Every structure is written in C-alpha cells, then in structure tokens.
Amino acid sequence: MQTVPNHQVENLQIEDDRTGLSVECLKRAFLDNLFYVQGKFPKIATKNDYYMALAYTVRDRLLQRWINTAVIYTERASRTVSYLSAEFLMGPHLGNNLVNLGIYDQVKQAVSELGLDLEDLLEQEEEPGLGNGGLGRLAACYLDSMATLEIPSLGYGIRYEFGIFDQDIRDGWQVEITDKWLHCGNPWEIARPEWEVYVKLGGHTEAYTDEHGRYRVRWIPYQVVKGVPHDTPILGYKTNTANTLRLWTAEAPESFDFGAFNSGDYLGAVQAKMVSENLSKVLYPNDDSSQGKRLRLAQQIFFVSCSLQDMIRIVFRQNVPLEKFHEKFVVQLNDTHPAIAVAELMRLLIDEHDMGWDQAWSITQKSLAYTNHTLLPEALERWPISLFRSLLPRHLEIIYEINYHFLEEVKAKFPGDSDRLRRMSLIDESGEKYVRMAHLACVGSHSINGVAALHTKLLQQDVLRDFYQMYPEKFNNKTNGVTPRRFMVLSNPRLTNLISSKIGDSWIKHLKDLKKLEAFVDDPEFCHQWRSIKSAIKHDLVAYIQKQNGISVNPDSIFDIQAKRFHEYKRQHLNALHIITLYNRIKANPDIDITPRTFIFGGKAAPGYYMAKLIIKLLNSIADVVNNDPDVRDRLKVVFLKDYSVKFAQRVYPAADLSEQISMAGKEASGTGNMKFALNGALTIGTLDGANVEIRDEVGAENFFIFGLTAPEVYALKARGYRPLDYYHSNRELKAVIDRIASGHFSHGDTQLFKPLLDSLLHRDEYLLFADYQAYIDCQDNVSQVYRDRDRWTRMSILNVARMGKFSSDRSIRDYCQDIWNIQSVPIELGECIQAKE
Ligand code: F55
User: Fold this and answer.
1) 823 lies in some domain
2) Residue 667: active-site member
3) 426 in ligand 1 pocket by Cβ < 6 Å?
4) Are residues 312 and 410 part of one domain?
5) Which residue, 266, 431, 794, 822, shows the most beta carbons closer than 10 Å to its own?
6) Nearest protein CA to atom 7 of ligand 1, as residue
7) Please, what is the end-to-end C-alpha distance for the chain in angstroms?
8) From the CB of residue 166, how many other CB atoms can be counted at a distance below 10 Å?
C-alpha cells in the first residue's frame, strides 16, 4: 500500500482499490468495474463484460505506473527513443500485462473465486492486428524490451480502424474479411484530444522574402487533416516503467467543413470529413511491395508529421531548446515507411521554426536512424514524382535540395563517376521518375542497420552497396530478437515452470541464463518431464485442430509446422513437394515404414498476390486428399489452420517439434518465427538464410537440420543460367511429385487449376525449389530418422532452448542503446508523490 499525504486520507480506500495487488483487492476492484464501468451485475453480465471489467482492473494498476513514469521523464527531460513504425502487431494486452505486473496467479485465483475461468476471459480479447507480420511484431517486441530495460521510449504509429484482415478458408481458397477490432471498444487506450496536431496535404508552394530579407517558402495546402493521439501504456516486466505507444487517428478539422456546411454544401462537408478519416481507416495488407498508392503515402506523411510535431511539442514543454532536438530524441525508422521523416523534420525546422538549412540538416541526421528489413528489390519503396508532387509539393523541393548537396558529396568522393551518381540519386530517372525512399533514409540518417548478420552483409555487398562505399561508418548490424515474456512465460507456462524449477527465473530478464539448463541434459527425470510437457501441449493442439478443422491428428506424430506470411520466397510450396513425396512413397508401397507426421500451416497471403493464394489452395487440396486416403492410414496429416495471428501463434509455437525455415538463401532478412519456435523447444529445418545462420551457430550444427544452397551458391547458380527443367527430368521423385499435381490428383481431375504454379516452377523457378529439392528431402528423411530416437530428440530440444539466449529482444535493444541510440536506463520508483499543479 502507498503512503499518502495526510489531506488525502479520505481517499485511502479508492487509492487501494485501484492499485492493490492482493486477491481480495483484485476481486473487489473487478466487481466494482463490472458495476460502474460496464453497468452490469453478475447475473446478466456477458463474457465480454467480465473481460472488460478485468481489463479496467488491470488498467488501473498500469495507470499508477504510467503516471509515475511520465512524471519522472518530464521532470528529468530524459533522453527518449522515438520508434516510428507504420505497424505495431501487439497481440492481446491482458495476459501480457498480467505477466509483466507479476499478478497472473493472483488474478487467476480472484476470478476463479468469482466462478470464472481466466483462460476464458483472455480468449475474449480481440487482438489489435495493426501489422502484417515480422516487421510489425518486431516493433511490439522492442516496446516490451525497452520498457523492461527501463529505456524511455515512445512508439509512434497509426491507429488503423481496420487492421490486417481476418482470413477464412472457403473451398480451400483464402477469403478476406474486414477486421473490426474496435467493435467492443478498446479498454487499453486513452485518447488525448488536447494534443491534436494538423497535417497539410496537396496544394502548392510560394516563395517569399521574410522580414530579415531571407528567402523563405510557404506551403498553401489543398487539405488539412487533424491527428488525434491515442495512448496505450507499455509496461515492462517486473519494473515500474510504463512507456507509451501513441497511435494517431485522422479526423477532419472542425473549421474545415464548417465553411462548407454554412454555405449549404452539407454533403460536400461530410465528404471532406470522410476523405480525412480515410487516412487511418485501413492497414495495407501487403508485406512485400507498396504499389505506389496515394493513400499509402498520405498515411506515411500523416503519422510521421503528427509524431515529429508531437516530439517538438515535448521538446518545448521540457524547456529544451529546439537546437537540441537530437539530444532529447533519437528517432528510429522501422523500414522506409516513415522515411519521409527526413524531409518532414527539415521542413518543420526550416519553414515552421525558422532554422537555417545547415543546422536543420545536422539535427536531422543526428536524430534519425534507419533499419532495413528486406532484400527483395521489389519491396524497396519508391513513389512516382508526379504523385509525390501532388501530395507533398514542399517535401519534393526539400528532397531535390538534399539531393543536390548529396550528389556534390558523391562527386567529391568519387570524381568522374557519373554512373554512380545516377545509381545513388534520391531520384530514379531511368524511366518514369521516382523518389527512392531507401536512399532518402540512408542519406538522412546517421545509422543504417540490417536485422541479421547475413542480411547486413548482403546489404553492404549488394542492395545498398554504393551507400556502404560512401558511408561505411553508418552501417551496423542489429540481429533481431523476440520477447521471452510473451513468447515463453505467457504462451508456455508449463515449460516456463519446469525451467524455473531447475534454474530459477532470472532467465526471464537475462535469457542467456538458460544456458544453465545444459547441466540437466543428462538427467533422465528432467528429460522425461521435458518430453511429457511437449506431449501435453501437443494433445491440446490436437483437440483444437479436431474442433477447428474436424481432423483427427496423432499426437505422437512429428508436429512439423510452417507458420508465417505466404510468399514464394518463403517456399511453403517446397514443403508441399515434400508432403507429396511421402504420399507417393506410400502409394507406391502402402506398407512402407514412415515416421508419422502432421504438417501444420498457418499464414495469410496478400489479397492481390495470386500465386501465394494458389499455394494456400494447393495445401488445402493436398490436405483433402491425403487426410482421406485410406492407404495413408494416419501416417500423414495435413492441417491448414486459418486466420493466423499473434494470439494463435502463441498457441502453435509451444506445440511444434519441427520448425520450417526454408526460404531461398539470401531472401529472408532475418525471420523471428525461427527464434520463437526454437525457444519453445522445436528443432529447426532451415536454409542458411537470415538469422538461421546465427541460430545454428548458437545451438550447434549437430542440433540443427541445415540443407540447401547458400546465398553465394544461389547467385552463382543464377549467374550460370538456372534450368529447372533439367532437375525435373533427372530427378525421379521430383518428376513424380510434379506429375501428380499436374494430373489433377489434388483437384478432382482438373489439370488447369495448378498450372500457373507448375509453369512458374518448370520454366522459371525464381526461388530455386527444384535446385534445393533433393537436399530438402534428404534432410527431412534424416529428421524422421532422428525423431525415432526420442531420447536424442529430447536432448537436442533441451540444448536448443538452453542456447537461445542471444535471441532475446532485450539483447537487441541493449545493442541499439549502445551502438546507435546512446541512451541510458531511467529506473522508476513507485510512490513518488504526484502533485497537482499549484
Ligand atoms: C510491410 C509493408 C511493406 Cl510495404 C513492406 C514490408 C512489410 C513487412 O511486413 N515486412 C516484414 O515483415 N519484413 C520482415 O521483417 C522481419 C523483422 O525484421 C524480418 O525478420 C523478416 O525477415 C522480414 O521479412
């Protein structure tokens, strides 16, 4: 209980009910919230009412920490990380907050004493799916780690009304359904209309001379949009730090439609309102290319401008001179989606705050840092100049000027190299003109990082090679990590408890301490417990699959799982070729001795990505045939679990025996699913791509199933001239697999259905499935062999977990703090007196 100043003694009871952590107190607070917030009593309350009452009970406890944190940061004007990301894939908040507050068990008991089941209430939460995949989830893990490490930070993004679509499967095809995550309200956020800001769009610029005779530019916009911040507290694990995730909603400024309304144009006024609100309406569901859509660029400038204006407001409020913006804030750009920040910060400093160019440029470069997440050339964002000018005329002028200075620098460093100037320019002039956002980000930042060692190396050698030669000192690697709080403690309590019973629970904050598990790898009792836990979790998933898909699965089979976005480079269809290979072996010899396997898939395809959707259809078609063929006799099962999400991921990682990380080498920047599976005791079958390389180095090659071409071998093969047909003709099993699909065996005799996929493989095979096929099959055969030796498998599983310490997002964040952000932790004491303004 907190000590309170005397004059507040009458409030003691209220204070206690909103902060107390005992079971009694939690129960009282819960019923109070049910009554006063939901307006219900137990007899008529729905599950959702109970969920909301519990969420508010937890939120009250967060608020105390949140306000304390804000008070201390404000008083000390603490240096702050500003993490700009178009996506934050947070996952459900309730369970995570219970874990981080350290009250999971108390709350479980409290609700159970009221006749409720905590797991049931947790299920109620509609997760905010404000991201596509790895990039958005990484941002969420980093917020968790920054709060846990007591690093002052603000996450800035967009409060999309519709997040990533819900996925249904009909007749084997993906169908997209709008995600209405806000329909029951969101108890975790607080709107802050008092900190609204305005963002200009469109129109034109005018030059003028100011009262000091200086050349200035004014921007007359076509449209102005209001941004309203909505704040969510981000609590650290067993600390008092609660940082903020600040997401912006777009609204029409009242004054804007007022005029139209008065002049009788009611519909025009409503129309203007709708156009404004569109900016935060929906998350773009592509995770590979941005397609140059105007609304997408408008979303980017909207959240970036709102966020930078908000930072400037904070700088002023804390009496920091604007010239020291870069001392108060370091701004990390999560890919190029917020890269317009380079031009927007320049514009704010120069046009709105009267700063000179050189000083503004120095502040901009010192403040910004850029993280790249892709090696796919088609994923590098570029905007047609005409579109850019029509939406952001002032920014285009600024970019031209940055480009002028930049190209002068390049000329000075590489005299006479006009080809280099053309390659490096911020403007692509090879055909239709484009603004190159990655180039803008590189030039405007003091740091450029990749997300795994191999990825950073390939950026330096290939995608950003010219920039590496120009600014080698800016480049650095920050291998991704994941938070063990959500992806172990919350999602896998059984393994968490077993581990903590042996080595204590320090590993939850210091993941490297998992190493201590190695001491138990030869302890038969421990190995037995390890195996029983994995088996119990698999039984749970079996029940779920039975309920969801109506498929009965053998819990003793290998749970072989590939869960991630669908993309050709990730090669879910290579996995399909393996399934059909095993199926063919059974058909050829029904009594063959095969280690039973259950192939489980989860993931969404971008709605406009035809080939990815066809791969989903193929997997579902294979499932229909394989699961119902009497010859197979339960040795193989194929399961597509629809609507993969964070909530769902937490259920599948703990149940996996085998994690599929089989992208073509040189394409997956890092991967983070690979880390979550391994941390939960799955073994990995993977290529030497992204962070797989580092995972194998850590866990030991003998505990990792590696196969396939390396990145240099991929380049060499492509350079020689790759001919997939040669592999088809020379590999009997491969040919039989392709012919089986082509025959219509999985499509009720329809030989056309999968033709586009087969043609693409036979005649192009951009991602070298055929070249890697035999190595993959051999490796899978070895997996099946090893799995039969259950003691050996268990030992490998334990060693994987024991050696995954490097892949905590805490380690990643420590590295960012040291190498890029130059920031220290600011511990928060509870019970600091919060006083009202005099
Ligand atoms: C989203 C929108 C656009 Cl326009 C482009 C890409 C994305 C996106 O979601 N990218 C993404 O998730 N990239 C992934 O980032 C992870 C975190 O760094 C990596 O682990 C993963 O390799 C990479 O593909």
Assistant:
1) no
2) no
3) no
4) yes
5) 794
6) 287
7) 26
8) 18
Mean pLDDT within 516-530: 98
- Pocket test of ligand 1: the residue of 84, 374, 378, 809 to mutate, having most ligand atoms within 8 Å of its CB, is 374
For the segment 712-741, the average pLDDT, to the nearest whole number, is 98
Q: Is there a domain that residue 559 lies in?
A: yes
Q: Does 458 have pLDDT greater than 80?
A: yes
Q: Which among 563, 574, 568 has a CA at the least distance from the CA of 603?
A: 563
Residue 604 annotated among the catalytic residues of the structure: no
CATH of the domain at 768: 3.40.50.2000
Condensed to tens digits (0 to 9), the pLDDT of residues 745-783 reads: 999 999 999 999 999 999 999 999 999 999 999 999 999
Q: Residue 600 corresponds to which amino acid?
A: I
What pLDDT, on a 0 to 100 scale, did the predictor assign at position 18? 87
Please tell me whether residues 136 and 72 are part of one structural domain: no
Hey, what are 519's tokens?
């001491």
Cα–Cα distance, 47 to 35 (Å, whole number): 14
Tell me the sheet residues that pair with 246: 156, 231
Residue 547 included in any domain: no
Q: At what angle do helices 493-503 and 524-549 cross, to 10 degrees?
A: 170
Closest CA to 810 of 586, 511, 453, 382: 511
State if residue 774 touches ligand 1 by the CB under 6 angstroms criterion.
Answer: no
Strand 434-436: give its sheet, edge to edge: 382-384, 434-436, 427-428
Confidence of residue 271 (pLDDT cuts 50, 70, 90): confident
Contact 227, 196 (CB under 8 A): yes
Rounded CA separation 309/348 (Å)? 8
Residue 597 sits in the same domain as residue 734 = yes
State how far the Cα of 681 lies from the Cα of 454, in Å rounded to an integer: 24
- Are residue 202 and residue 242 in the same domain, yes or no? yes
Residue 794's CB is within 10 A of a number of other CB atoms, namely 20
| Distance in Å, CA 380 to ligand 1 centroid | 11
* Nearest-CA residue for atom 4 of ligand 1: 290
**Would 478 be classed as within a structural domain?**
no
Distance (Å) from CA 77 to ligand 1 centroid: 33
Give the per-residue pLDDT at 259: 60
449 lines ligand 1 (CB under 6 A): no
Q: Are 569 and 629 within one domain?
A: yes
Are 449 and 591 found together in one domain?
no
Residue 809 CB–ligand 1 contact under 6 Å: no
pLDDT tens readout for residues 44-77: 999 999 999 999 999 999 999 999 999 999 999 9
Same-domain pairing of 695 and 605: yes
Entry pTM: 0.96
- 177 in the same domain as 57: no
DSSP β-bridge partners for residue 250: 227
Is 838 a residue whose pLDDT tops 50?
Answer: no
134 lines ligand 1 (CB under 6 A): yes
The per-residue pLDDT for range 401-422, each reduced to its tens digit, is 999 999 999 999 999 999 999 9
Domain boundary among 789, 806, 833: 789
Contacts of 273 (CB under 8 A, 6+ apart): 251, 252, 257
690 CA closest ligand 1 atom index: 22
Question: Amino acid letter at 664?
Answer: M
For the chain, the helix, strand and coil percentages under 3-state DSSP, each to the nearest 5:
55, 15, 30
Q: In degrees to the nearest 10, what's the CA dihedral of 382, 386, 387, 389?
A: 100
Which tens digit of pLDDT belongs to each residue from 352-370?
999 999 999 999 999 999 9
Q: Does the active-site annotation cover 564?
A: yes
676 a catalytic residue: yes
Annotated catalytic, 200? Answer: no
Element (H, E) at 223: strand 223-235
The residue among 766, 789, 812 that closes a domain is 789
Q: Give me ligand 1 centre to Cα 364, in Å.
A: 25
Q: Which domain holds residue 558?
A: 554-789
Into how many domains does the chain fold?
A: 3
455 is catalytic: no
Task: Give me the chain's average pLDDT, please.
Answer: 95
